[in-house]
Design brief:
By secondary structure, the chain is of the alpha+beta class. The protein has 12 helices and 11 strands. A hairpin with a 3-residue loop joins β1 (89-96) and β2.
């Protein structure tokens, strides 16, 4: 083609085409193998991965580090801009090793993101991080609100769990929050858990059970073999079966306290937080024991239970058989409830 014809072609070629050709020429220095590897490893867009490799001179480790830093900065900015949006969707994550269990709630804006693999991995990651952190504490029961749980140190790469959440915000582009966590541990009891999910594909991830509702229970079995009553299908059950049906009941009926029956016809309080126990131990006056031969001390008066009967677990009609109460079902199976905690994703909280 004559030279004057080439000049005519370039004059009529759109500017965007010329700019694209220039970009392709400039990007020839990026190693395609490293580009694909960085894309698979981080999950970020091809354009951002290419920019990172160009900036770091095809150094894969530096490019990945730079991408995470940029995503975290962008995530914090997006979280600040989107903090007024409602985050009623999300997941409940539970990690349970039978002697200790941790339950967390992570919220997002839409159910679509709640099913996203990155959000699922995020919930599993923070649940394991909280579980390992709480295991180092000596308290048998720990409730962590939003401020406390977000300040927990991250396992690697980030300073705190809040930084991990910000990293995911920058990657997904929707606001998220690590809302709360609870931890139960007991040496003499069995720690059981129950998760209710409406989506089978997000039921578990990395030994973390996921769903929309979650329950932790500290259960103690009397060690006896209880015969099955033909008139009662929920008698003579194993401890695992009892924990499963009891978890379903707690999710469905939402009791507030256990509600033990005492000789004075009053019920015990709900399971107390560790902070309340510490405050009481500091403020409670010491009592003397004048009668040392009998080794008996005067017991403080029991607090009268102000919760209505329908909010007390043992007094509620059993969800799966309304002819018996939860207390009757547990008694026929030789099981005692020591403590429990229930999370419903997106439920209203007093601190909100």
């Amino acid at each position: 083609m004559p030279l004057n014809m080439w000049s005519l072609v370039f004059q009529r070629m759109p500017v965007s085409c010329l700019w694209s050709s220039t970009l392709r020429t400039m990007s020839t220095g990026v190693d395609k193998t490293l580009l694909n590897k960085l894309r698979k490893r981080t999950g970020y867009t091809l354009i951002n991965c290419k920019k990172a490799l160009e900036r770091c001179g095809n150094d894969l480790e530096d490019a990945e580090k730079w991408l995470h830093e940029q995503a975290q900065k962008e995530g914090w900015c997006k979280a600040t801009k989107l903090q007024t949006r409602c985050m009623s969707q999300g997941l409940i994550g539970i990690v349970n090793d039978c002697k200790a269990a941790t339950m967390v709630e992570v919220n997002c804006e839409t159910d679509f993101v709640a099913r996203n693999c990155k959000f699922i991995d995020l919930t599993s990651q923070v649940a394991h991080a909280c579980h390992h952190f709480f295991l180092k504490q000596k308290l048998p029961m720990i409730f962590a609100n939003r401020g406390m749980v977000n300040s927990i140190p991250a396992p690697q790469g980030c300073n705190t769990l809040a930084d991990i959440v910000a990293l995911c915000i920058g990657s997904v582009g929707e606001n998220m929050v690590l809302r709360r966590a609870v931890h139960l541990k007991e040496e003499k009891s069995s720690i059981s858990s129950y998760v209710h999910t409406s989506c089978p594909e997000i039921n578990a991830c990395n030994n973390c059970c996921l769903g929309k509702y979650g329950v932790l229970m500290s259960l103690q079995h009397d060690g006896k073999c209880h015969e099955r009553d033909e008139c009662n299908p929920y008698s003579g059950l194993s401890l695992d079966k009892v924990s499963n049906v009891l978890g379903q009941h707690i999710v469905g009926m939402n009791p507030k306290i256990i509600g033990y029956v005492n000789p004075d016809n009053s019920c015990n309080r709900a399971p107390r937080t560790c902070q309340e126990d510490e405050d009481d131990s500091c403020n409670r006056p010491t009592r003397s024991c004048p009668d040392r031969e009998e080794n008996k001390c005067e017991e403080p008066p029991r607090r009268e239970c102000k919760e209505p009967e329908e909010d007390r677990l043992l007094f509620q009609e059993f969800l799966l058989d309304q002819n018996i109460s939860v207390g009757d079902m547990l008694k026929k199976n030789g099981v005692t409830v020591k403590a429990f905690a229930r999370f419903a994703c997106g439920e209203a909280l007093p601190d909100d």
